[in-house]
Amino acid sequence: MTPAFWKGKRVFITGHTGFKGGWLSLWLQALGAEVTGFALDPATDPNLFSSAQVGQGMCSIIGDIRDHAALSAALTEAKPEIVVHMAAQPLVRYSYHHPVETYQTNVMGTVHLLEAVRSSDSVNSVLVVTSDKCYENRERKQGYREDEAMGGFDPYSSSKGCAELVVAAYRKSFFDQGRRIAIATARAGNVIGGGDWSEDRLIPDMVRAFSSAQCVSIRNPGAVRPWQHVLDALHGYLLLLERMYENPGRFSGAWNFGPEDHDARDVGWIVARFADYWGDAHWQIEQDAENLHEAGLLTLDCSKARNKLNWHPVLTLEQTLAWIADWYHGFYDGADITAISSEQLALFQSRVVQ
Ligand SMILES: NC(=O)c1ccc[n+]([C@@H]2O[C@H](COP(=O)([O-])OP(=O)(O)OC[C@H]3O[C@@H](n4cnc5c(N)ncnc54)[C@H](O)[C@@H]3O)[C@@H](O)[C@H]2O)c1
Asked: Does domain 6-192+228-260+295-315 have CATH number 3.40.50.720?
């Protein structure tokens, strides 16, 4: 990536109060971008947004992407050149209990965002963050490629497949015509890092339990996922946006961002290794009382990003787990979380900028 590219760029991020959006906001602030964020209040307490004081170096707007007028007014006012859409209802199990909210947020929220972009005269490039779960999952070993069918068993996964179809339609109908706007989607795997306290996610579940000397219950220990550090995924997004900005025709489209093949590990492995990095941690395997379907095997073929963006994950899964344990230990020890986050960002950046 090219840090100088970002200096002074006006970037509009939806979902900046969340886990990935918080890290992206911190990174863009460090690069000297003018960042505006639009999202709901943080959903958990604690959260990254407050603990790392994400809102300090940006214009933070609290609003709902289901409110088309509010989103459009915020985007028009910010006059961004680059838009990153991350706001979503991102949880599979929650989506079984709240399917309407999930589709309203993830599908109509995306439509509202693209409508706001369509009526703006400042935007050059848009990145819509969907998910590896957007694919029709056939539980096969071979990773999914970008041109494969959209699908999704549960409401969350299907809403992300729908968001992909919405973006493809807007690209063909509006953004490839007339004033060209580059628009891409990013399908990342299970993104992990410090600062996530969401419900029903593996690392937050472990952190909540371990930090209060509780035993954590693990469902689906055999489920294989493409785990990767949040900064590896965000590095892919930034690289892609730099290329899109210069060459919209070549880089618009869908992109997978996932780990090296040997880092697609099962849940049981992650739990055992993270417990080692944490120290004095206990877990037990538990039958899922609700018996909700979750994918057993999900891997991505990321050769497009490797070949066309020269993007590769920088942190191994072992390093990823060590960085995460350090971050949360810092948090629970009362250390300066803004400083710890900045140190991890600076160290990561030194490894991707020659
Ligand atoms: N974390 C992962 O493993 C992962 C993997 C693949 C894709 N994703 C996608 O990445 C994006 C960010 O996920 P995350 O892990 O940071 O989730 P998160 O829950 O930490 O953050 C979600 C953000 O969206 C905002 N939001 C939710 N509903 C909103 C609404 N109606 N209006 C405005 N803002 C709203 C929240 O306020 C928050 O800022 C999501 O699109 C998610 O689907 C995440």
From this structure: yes
